[in-house]
Structure formats: structure tokens, C-alpha cells
Amino acid sequence: MSPEILKAAFADNLNFAVGRPAEIATPEDWYQAIAFSVRDRIMHRWVRQFEKRNAPDVRQVAYLSAEFLPGPHLGNSLLNLGITDNARKALAGQDLDLYIGLEEEPGLGNGGLGRLAACYLDSLATLCYPATGYGIRYEFGIFDQSIKDGWQVEVTDKWLLPGNIWEIKRPNFAQVVKIGGHTETYTDEHGAFRVRWIPDRVVVGVPYDTPIVGYLSDSCVLLRLWSAEAAQSFDFADFNRGDYYGAVEEKVFSENISKVLYPNDEQLEGKRLRLEQQYFFVACSIKDMIRLCLRRGSTLERFHEMFCVQLNDTHPAIAVAELMRQLVDKYAMPWERAWDITRRTFSYTNHTLMPEALEKWPLPLFGSVLPRHLEIIYEINRRFLDEVRTRFPGDEGKIARLSIIDESGEKYVRMANLAMVGSHTVNGVAALHSELVKTQLFPDFHDLDPKRFQNVTNGVTPRRFLGLSNPGLTRLIDGRIGDSWLSNLDRLRELEAFAGDVGFQQDWMRVKLENKTRLARIIRDRTGVVVDPSSLFDIQVKRIHEYKRQHLNVLHIITLYQRIKHDPRLQITPRTFLFGGKAAPGYFMAKLIIKLINSVAETVNQDPAVRDLIKVVFLPDYNVKHAQNIYPAADLSEQISTAGKEASGTGNMKLSLNGALTIGTLDGANVEIREEVGAENFFLFGLTCEQAARLRAGGYNPGDYCHGDPELRGVIELIDSGLFSHGDRDLFRPITAHLLERDDYLLMADYRPYVNCQQEVDHAYRDRHHWTRMSILNVARMGKFSSDRAVREYADNIWKLKPFAPEA
Ligand code: 9GP
Q1: Is 659 left (phi over 0), alpha (psi -120 to 50) or beta?
Q2: Regions in the chain scoring below 70 on pLDDT
Q3: 3-class secondary-structure state, position 252
Q4: Which end of the chain has fewer CB atoms surrounding its CB within 10 Å, N or C?
Q5: What spacing in Å lies between the alpha carbon of 575 and ligand 1's midpoint?
Q6: Dihedral sign from CA coordinates of 460, 462, 464, 466
Q7: Catalytic: which of 178, 543, 575, 792?
């Protein structure tokens, strides 16, 4: 598409869609005009493919996810359409990057899980798979984080306030969803015994569609997000009686369902609204698929041939009972047939072993929101447990563990068990995690049917996370191996040949320095802290959680601080420690860790004795947009979770893809990253998963590690002395006391190996040529971690899905 055509499109949209004369148009107006022009081109592709996508023989994947974190659309869509350069030319002297930077991002996810879903949509579109991502159009996404006096403050994310150009409302495809009430039995006209659900209330789900265009593929997939509306905006009976407030109450009540994204890592037990949210989007999505299936002239007997449905974690697991309800209650299908279709439709991805993240709902709550589903779940469970009993007679323990209903105390519905029973396949998200899913999480299900278990190691899109966010490195790579690697990441291997090339290494270092200089400016502008771009950028960006061990990183920083204070002539590699990440609003320890990071930063950054050898920065409001500035500038990627706790991680992949070396434990996908890049190009430390388990089993005493290591003791004492808290000795006591007394995440045991490993990093960074060689090899060997590979594995091994040719 030529610059001239784009120029005309921008002018037209400024005129007709935005309604502003060019002479007085603001940057926001220009952003909108460009965004409309780009959307037009995506829509054109979308409409052109309509027939192909909806042909009766085309099988589709529906990716059900309560979270999608796509990031800003404009820059990525320009890249995927291959028109960024021409858009720049069309703007003749205006700053395209400024306009791109104005876009509010849809923060419709907490972190890795939602971002993974967005990466998969990018790859599904790029590889021309027919797909729809179904989710919730939260009015308020993940909160914006600001830092006040070192503490996290949550601010409502009003992402829709400036309007959202990328979505199209489709009221004609709205669905009605029932909630609450009771069930009753009746006999139908054929004399058959049937059940119907009489709800307390109904809400309407209105879909908003965002087509996502693939990279140079001309193909699109759809992100269809449901927004809750009242069945009637006003109760006219109330209104006519003069009760205006009563009349709008129902509207407010209904719209609450899609109002806000729940932050994870909170105790969500008993959050009725969250259960309603989950059911709401699942019910709308299943009904939408049924509508499409019937519209294509198929019968529901073939539902599982037309749709494969991926359950992204347990959040959409209620879909199993909902499809059964639709088939049995509404379409009068015999139970056995409906169950067969259901089992062939669903597959389930597990993303966590953390017990608090495995959802279970108190039975009374569940029954009051979804009375009919509870009956259906009882029936599924009864039939399932009968099978188990015949295979393992008398093994009541096994039966209790496999049951969808937890009856060990207060009764719960276990959503993971429902997802397991109702799916043909379950997968973990990294090789180690998938093993742990078999052996620790679901050993009884594994005994029952080992063939159902698979692994699909996560992947990330190289388009957004290298092509878009690191143009300098992209150009450098293009210059050596051409540009086809962005859609065939394995081709990065060809860079290995240049790893020792001094000229290439210098270019590589130059690009990294430019990226670090840019980030240093952002850090200064946003926090006031001045950092040296030539220092080692040591980066830990991710949700704040004790298992991710940001506080282990802090213990290392304090160790260095202590060493510098003890020896004023000490020489170490200058470092900038950068943290970013949100803590769940109700997670006290995580919020205290943020305060600790900021407090240590305040003390260390201002102490002249430190001689600027170390700087500590907490960059507020870590999100996709900020991540895109951070990854390209990283020298060292901190992936230091307690082994066995991080299911996969994806930040580890994005950082390594941008040339950072990893310091990490053998956890999640770190294991495979290390295998790929080579042990000599990875800084490994810490307990393995097995060692951690043995240590715990043998009676772990964290205090012993502290008392046996004077340096560690000094660090803990320094925190407790009040040095970082203006004399307040108690402020951080919950952290230090937990470390000394319980230390669930084994920081004390891993402290010394971590600090020693960091010393190796310090030495390695001094040999810049060798470091750069390692950095090049990291990038060259990241091909496996493309989301294209992951999506192909899902399509081939789980979904049995074929790409379609988008062009006629
Ligand atoms: O914690 C995992 C993270 O390790 C993984 O990379 C991500 C995507 O698979 O999912 C996260 N899990 C959740 O957010 C909740 O289960």
C-alpha cells in the first residue's frame, strides 16, 4: 500500500470519521485517523474471508479465556500489515511513534496468562487458522499502579474513556444469560421427563468484535468480548410508578457482571460476582458457537467437528456443564450422546500448580448462582465415579480425590476436576510443569488415563516482542539473515555464524546501548532516578509474588550495598536493578515487597558511599506498553522463582529473545531455555524441584541458613535495623520473620548459591565481547519459543485443526 494511498486514507478519516480539519487536529485526532485507516484495512481482509471461514467444512478453534492482554493495537497492526514505513512516509515529518504511544492499552488480563492468549491470537492469525478468542469486555481492566511513598496505590483503569476504535459492537448477536433461581421438572410433548431452569434474573451479553490481523498473512482471527447489559435498560413498571431509582437498579446490577477484572493472587473464594462473570462469558460463547453451527446448516451432532474449544485455565471450565445443559435441556439430546460430543469438544490447559489458584466454589454459592449446572455436575460426577469404582474397586481415597465435589470438609465444586473430566486432553505449559501436572497435581487422573496428558511449552510472538519493540535489533538481524525470521523464528539460528564476528558484536552492543539509553530516559522521566546506560541492566519484571522471589533479588542488592559500605574501594560491575510489576490489591506480603524495593532504592540511590555503583529502580505500572520498552534494554533477566512454582513464564522468553542472559533456577520454561541456549550461556543456581521437595520433607529450618552465613545475617539485620525504613524496625518484620521462621519459598536456602552466581555474572559482564557472544547465541537459539511453534503444536496434536488459504 503506497504512501500516497495511506496519506489519502488518513486525510479522509480525519475528515469523515474524526471530524477535524487538519489545521487544528491534535495528536489524539491524528492517532484516531490513522487507527481508523488501519482498521479499515483489517476489516477489508476480514470481510473478504468471510465465506472461506464460514464454509461448512471449516473447523474452528474457540479459545475461551477470562483474560486477554493484547497491548496497544496500532503499532502491531501496522507491522503485521507491512505498512509501517509507508505510514511514516505518508505522515511526512509527523511523528508516527508519538501517535502510536497515545493508545490506551486494553488491560484485560493480570499477566502471563492473558498475554499468552494474545500471543496465540497473533500466531493463529499469522498461520491462517480459523479461530475466535472469546472473553469478557471488562469496563475496568487491571488497575493502573502508581507509587506513593514507596507503596503501591491502585487507580481504576478507565481504558474505554477515550473510545476504542478497534472494536465493533454487534448487538444483533447478543445472547441472553440466566442467573440464579431454581429448576423444575416437566414432561414434554413426547412424554419425556425434562428439566427446566427458572432463573431469578437474566442479563444480556453483547459482543464487541476486534479482528486481529496476522503478520503478512492477510488472514484475521476474531477477538469477541462480551459486555453485560440489562435485559431492559429500564423497568418501565417501576418507572411508571415513579420509582426512578428502582427502575435503573436492575441495569446497574446487570452491568456489574462485566464491570471489573479480578486481580489474581487474591483469596477469591466466595466471590459470587466472579462466578457470574465466568458463567456469563462462557454461556454467551457456547450459545454463539451453537448459533454459528446451526447457521452453517449443520446439526449439533457435529458440534465437536465444527468447534474445538480450549479452556484457558479453569476460569471457563463451567463450559463443560453449559454445553451439556444446552444439548440435553434445550436440544433434547440423549445424555450419552451429549456427553460424547462434550468430551470431544473440550481440551484444558493448566497454568498453575499453586493451590490457591485452583478454583473451587462453595457448593451453596454455586447452587444459588447455577442451580441447573449443579445438578448436571452431580450427574457427570456420578457416572464418572461409577467408572472409577469399577476400575479401582474399594479405593475410596482415590474416588474422593477424583470427585468433582470436594467433600473433605465444607463442600466445594472443584473446577479443575470438572475441566479434567470434561476434556479429551489436558496440557501443561512447559515440559517440567507438564510432568508436575501428571505427578503432583492430577496423579489419580493420570493413573486413569495417561494418554490424555500432553505438554505444550508456551511461546511468545516475535512480531510484537522483537519486530515492534526492538527495531534496532530487528534491522541488525535483517541485515545479516534477511527478514523472513519474523515468521520463521528457527531461522535465527543462522545468527550463530556471526556470534564471534567482532564487527557484528560491536553493532550488537551499539543497539543494546541505544535501547538502554532510551530506557534510561524513560526511567528519569517517570521516576526522577538517573541511571547510567553503560551499567549492567539487571531486570526483574513480572507480577509481584513471594514465589517469584523479588525479595531474593533485594537480598542480593543489600548484600552488595553492605560490601560497598564495608570496603570503600571495592570495585564491582556497575549495575542498574530494575523492577516492575503489580501486586494484587489484597496481597499484603507482595505489597510490602514493593515497599521494600522502593525503600532500599531510596537509601542506596542517595548514599554517596555507593558511588553510583548500584542503582535501584521500581518502574510503576508495568504493562504491555512499558514491557516493550524494557525488554530490549535488558542485559540480565531475573527468573529466580522457587523451583516447581512457576508453571512456565513467558517474560523469560521475551527477555532472552531481546538478548538478555538469564540468571535462573531450573523452573518452568527456564529449563528448556537453558537446554536451547546452552548451559554455558545461562547463569544457573539454586535447588531443583526434587531437592526442594526433599529439603521440605526433611524439616526445613531457614534460620539455620541465616545463622550459618554471616553475610546473610548482616543483610537481615540491616533490614530489621530500620535503615531502610526511617528507623521503623517493624515495618519489614513480616518479611524477615517469615524468612527466618517459615520461608515457604526457600529464599534462605537459595541465597548463597544466588549471590555466588551473581558474582559470576559480575565477572562475565566485564568481558564484553564474550558477553555479547553469549547474548547473540541466546537470540539465535530462541526459535523454539515462538508462539507460532506452540500454536502449531496445539493445532496438530490437540485441536486437529488445519490452516485455511485466506485468499480466493
Ligand atoms: O503462572 C503462570 C505462568 O508461569 C505462565 O507462564 C502463564 C501462561 O501459561 O500462566 C501463569 N498462570 C496464571 O496466570 C494463572 O494460572
Answers
A1: left
A2: 233-242, 244-247, 265-270, 806-808
A3: helix
A4: C
A5: 29
A6: positive
A7: 543
pLDDT given for residue 218 in this prediction: 87
- Quote the pLDDT of residue 236: 57
For residue 271, the model assigns a pLDDT of 86
Give CA angle at 790 (785, 796), nearest 5°.
Answer: 150
CATH superfamily, domain 475-698+758-781, is: Glycogen Phosphorylase B; (3.40.50.2000)
DSSP, res 786: B
Nearest Cα to Cα of residue 639 among 515, 759, 542:
542
CA angle 803, 118, 30 (to 5 degrees): 105
C-beta neighbour count of 703 within 10 angstroms:
13
Q: Point out the ligand 1 atom lying closest to the alpha carbon of residue 458.
A: 9
Q: Are 588 and 542 a contacting pair, CB within 8 Å?
A: no
Candidate of 63, 264, 429, 793 to mutate for ligand 1, largest count of ligand atoms within 8 Å of Cβ = 429
**Equal CATH topology for 49-71+106-423 and 475-698+758-781:** yes
Contacts of 677 by beta carbon, 8 Å cutoff, 6+ apart: 656, 662, 777, 778, 781, 782
List the domain boundaries for the chain: 1-48+77-103, 49-71+106-423, 475-698+758-781
Residue located nearest, by CA, to atom 3 of ligand 1: 649
Q: Give the pLDDT score at 808.
A: 44
Could you tell me the three cell numbers for 598?
Answer: 522502593
Q: Which of 65, 110, 113 to mutate to test the pocket of ligand 1 (most atoms within 8 A of CB)?
A: 113
> What ipTM score was computed for the predicted complex, to two decimals?
0.99
Q: Is 650 a catalytic residue?
A: yes
Pairing of strands 575-580, 614-618: parallel
Residues 6+ apart with CB under 8 A from 52: 58, 804, 805, 806, 808
Q: Which residues contact 493 (CB under 8 A, 6 or more apart)?
A: 780, 781, 783
DSSP H helices in 317-462: 319-325, 335-345, 363-369, 371-391, 396-402, 415-421, 431-436, 443-448, 462
Q: Is the CB–ligand 1 distance for residue 313 below 6 Å? A: yes
Q: What is the 3-state secondary structure (H, E, C) of 41-103?
A: HHHHHHHHCHHHHCCCCCCEEEEECCCECCCCCHHHHHHHHCCHHHHHHHCCCCCHHHHHHCC
pTM of the model: 0.97
Quick one: residue 589, left, alpha or beta (phi over 0 = left, psi -120 to 50 = alpha)?
Answer: alpha
Domain 49-71+106-423 has CATH 2.60.120.10: no
- The per-residue pLDDT for 646 is 98
- Most distant CA atoms of the chain, gap in Å: 92
Angle at 222 between CA 359 and CA 35, to 5 degrees: 115
- Is residue 748 a contact partner of residue 739, using CB atoms and an 8 Å limit? yes
